[in-house]
Design brief:
There is one protein chain. The protein is built from 17 helices and 10 strands. It has 489 residues and is of the alpha/beta class. It has 3 domains: 238 residues, Rossmann fold (3-Layer(aba) Sandwich), CATH 3.40.50; 92 residues; 54 residues, no CATH class. Strands 1, 2, 5, 6, 7, 8, 9 and 10 form an 8-stranded mixed sheet that branches. Strands 3-4 form a two-stranded antiparallel ribbon. Strand 3 and strand 4 form a beta hairpin. Helix 10 crosses helix 12 and helix 11 packs across helix 12. It comes from Cercophora scortea. It holds the Pfam family His_Phos_2. Keywords: Membrane, Signal, Transmembrane, Transmembrane helix. Belongs to the histidine acid phosphatase family.
Length: 489
């Protein structure tokens, strides 16, 4: 009798709403590429397949009509450009990776893309309804370029004076010098494998990543008979090369006592907040609102962000260089019922962080991890923002101050800052008032923020130095020139 009563009353009891994904931000690395030791560096067919696999998984999870975590209101078959924000630094490998990723996210629409003309005929776009989704290019504020895949040393391209100095200081640290000395014999013992590319003076821990990159690419794309003294490359040796490269790059990308070194992660953090807030602020029922933001950038940016967000506390996977086609995701979710008009109450919204080391796929599903030294994998929106803002850098003025830059985009004129030469009327030399100049500076800030991404996807894919020839890069290394690598890809 009591059971019957409960069953009768059950329909009237309130049920918790199922979780709804309001939007997502994806930061993605490129796929497999040729070695940095020789130009031009290009995306390989394997690399294209890796990012396509990832794009296809994200489609299956967020976009398709039957997706388990379908983003609210996102178009399933025909891409609505206003719902998407896709960016990449100016770099052949990264740009091509973004384009291939989009083919997985929104494949050819087939008959859905057929258009009937006034004369009664029908026409389809080439390649069975291939969908044209633009990838917005972002650049470095100083060099005018983005994260150059051909460079072994990339940090100087960020233009952040203090970040460059901080990364370079690693080369004078006791830790670095000790490792340089203790690994000397190890690198010299492998000279028969790579001495045509890395002669003895360059075969040291100083070039840990570029040596690892050269050997790794060789083992992936060359037969053993094509690799000199291939028998030296035992599993243990390959593992040691990778571990040393991980140590080298992580220390160039992040240092707890010198947060400015991780400027790439700081700018990315602000970009993540901005993108998710754009989605959150829009009416939940608005179909044209931005739903998914995807950025392609450097592995150095991953490590910089991981360090700032204390991700290594959750897993050792966040310590080293992420694999090709790796991605991290920030899901904007709610368990509240969606309003028929207006935006979802921020108090009802949370953020979940997920990461896939390598291509996201059914065999490598992105996993949720806690950030900021916490234990929960899903944080309330206000808590997430509070934690991110502890290290986020989201305006040009703040970036310039943190970096110690005072020229170029950081000059008083560019920032709209009054100087002693300004007249009392508040006009600039060009007749623009200071308030208007401030607005112009804010617009410039957006471009800059989107550019710190190779060292900063926000300020533009900040990368280490401008693209130079491999010969010049090696000469710099041989001459003892230290250039930090935080924005490497």
């Amino acid at each position: 009798m009591q059971l019957v009563s409960l069953l009768v009353l059950a329909p009237s009891l309130p049920f918790a709403a199922a979780e709804t994904v309001l939007g997502a931000f994806i930061f993605h690395r490129h796929g497999d590429r040729t070695t940095k030791s020789y130009n031009p560096v290009t995306l390989t067919p394997l690399g294209a397949e890796q990012v396509f696999t990832s794009g296809s998984w994200y489609r299956d999870n967020y976009i398709s009509a039957d997706a388990p975590s379908k983003i609210n209101g996102v178009s399933s078959d025909l891409a609505v450009l206003s719902q998407l924000s896709i960016t990449s630094t100016i770099d052949n490998v990264l740009q091509n990776s973004a384009q291939v990723f989009l083919q997985g996210l929104y494949p050819p629409a087939g008959s859905l893309a057929i258009q009937k003309l006034a004369n009664g005929s029908s026409i389809n776009t080439p390649f069975n309804g291939y969908q044209y989704i633009p990838v917005n290019a972002v650049t470095s504020p100083t060099s005018g370029k983005g994260a150059e895949e051909t460079n072994g040393w990339l940090q100087a391209g960020s233009g952040c004076t203090k970040a460059i100095a901080s990364s370079n200081s690693y080369f004078q640290s006791a830790e670095y010098l000790a490792t340089l000395d203790s690994t000397k014999d190890f690198y010299q013992s492998l000279l028969p494998v790579y001495n045509a590319t890395f002669p003895s003076p360059n075969a040291t821990f100083k070039n840990a990543y570029t040596i690892y990159d050269f050997v790794h690419v060789s083992t992936v794309h060359n037969t053993t008979s094509a690799i000199p003294s291939h028998d030296l490359l035992t599993p243990s040796t390959l593992h040691q090369l990778q571990t040393l490269a991980d140590t080298h790059e992580y220390n160039l990308a992040y240092n707890a006592s010198s947060p400015i070194r991780a400027i790439a992660g700081s700018v990315l953090a602000a970009q993540i907040i901005s993108a998710l807030n754009t989605t959150l602020s829009a009416p939940a029922s608005k179909k044209s609102a931005q739903k998914l933001t995807t950025q392609f950038g450097a592995y150095g940016t991953f490590m910089a962000f991981f360090g700032l967000a204390n991700a290594p506390a959750a897993s050792k996977d966040f310590y080293g260089v992420v694999d090709y086609a790796s991605s991290m995701v920030f899901e904007l979710v709610t368990n509240a019922s969606l309003p028929t008009s207006g935006a979802v109450n921020p108090a009802d919204v949370s953020v979940r962080f997920l990461f896939a080391n390598g291509s996201a796929s059914a065999a490598n599903v992105p996993q949720a991890y806690p950030l900021f030294g916490r234990t929960e994998t899903t944080l309330k929106w206000d808590v997430f923002v509070q934690e991110m803002e502890k290290f986020a850098i989201g305006t040009t003025a703040v970036w310039c101050d943190a970096c110690g830059n005072t020229d170029g985009i950081c000059s008083p004129a560019s920032l709209g800052i009054a100087t002693a030469d300004d007249n009392e009327s508040g006009s600039s030399d060009g007749g623009v008032s200071r308030p208007v100049a401030g607005v112009i500076g804010a617009v410039v800030a957006i471009a800059v923020i989107l550019a710190v991404q190779g060292l900063v996807m926000l300020v533009g894919g900040l990368r280490l130095a401008k693209k130079e020839t491999v010969a010049l890069a090696r000469k710099a290394s041989h001459d003892g020139v230290s250039v930090s690598t935080e924005g490497r890809v």
